[in-house]
Design goal:
185 residues; GMP Synthetase, Chain A, domain 3; Histidine-containing Protein, Chain: A; four-stranded mixed beta sheet; 5 helices; 7 strands
């Protein structure tokens, strides 16, 4: 009789332990879920804040990464004010604790400005590429640094990617063209 009480008591204790462990694991899972949701919300808000910057143009490339409540800004901009404005805007987002601003300000150069304009005309005036030019922020960003061009962004297919690269290489005075374009999946 005593032995069966010990067994029943032991089983009850084991059941309580297992139940508590399940609650702890469930609590950890819900905490991780909340963190993932918070990070996804931050990513969406950071993207929105960056693409709506008043002086953000086709000649700038703003990128970011979110790690918890910390945001790292990357990319290249043609004006120093865009770098500081982007940082201020991201810092003002609720839930952001710190911003690491690693955005590169491109050197000012009349020759680079000429290349930017020529690249824009060459790429966006090509037959079939006008569909990209009419968007609020055209998806092909033209980054020019010391005569070297980098194309960054997303196009619909490989044909558009090849066309953009071919047109970019046709501009006189360009030393090199680097391809960082991706196609939609």
């Amino acid at each position: 009789m005593k032995r069966s009480r010990y067994i029943v008591g032991g089983l009850a204790l084991a059941l309580m332990f297992v139940s508590g462990a399940i609650r702890v694991q469930s609590g950890q899972a819900s905490t991780q879920q909340r963190q993932m949701e918070s990070e996804a919300r931050l990513q969406k808000e950071v993207r929105h804040v960056l693409v709506t910057q008043p002086f953000y143009s086709v000649f700038d490339n703003l990128a970011y990464s979110v790690n918890g409540d910390r945001v790292t800004l990357e990319g290249q901009v043609a004006t120093p004010t865009l770098k500081s404005n982007a940082e201020k805007a991201v810092k003002s987002i609720e839930g952001v604790s710190a911003v690491d601003n690693q955005i590169e300000v491109l050197p000012t150069s009349p020759n680079d400005d000429r290349i930017r304009r020529a690249e824009f005309r060459a790429i966006y005036s090509a037959p079939g590429m006008q569909k990209y030019a009419i968007q609020a922020v055209p998806p092909i960003h033209i980054i020019v640094k010391n005569g070297n061009v980098t194309l960054v962004g997303v196009v619909l297919n490989n044909i558009d990617k090849t066309l953009a690269l071919t047109r970019a290489k046709s501009v006189s005075g360009v030393f090199s063209v680097m391809d960082q374009l991706t196609t939609e999946k």
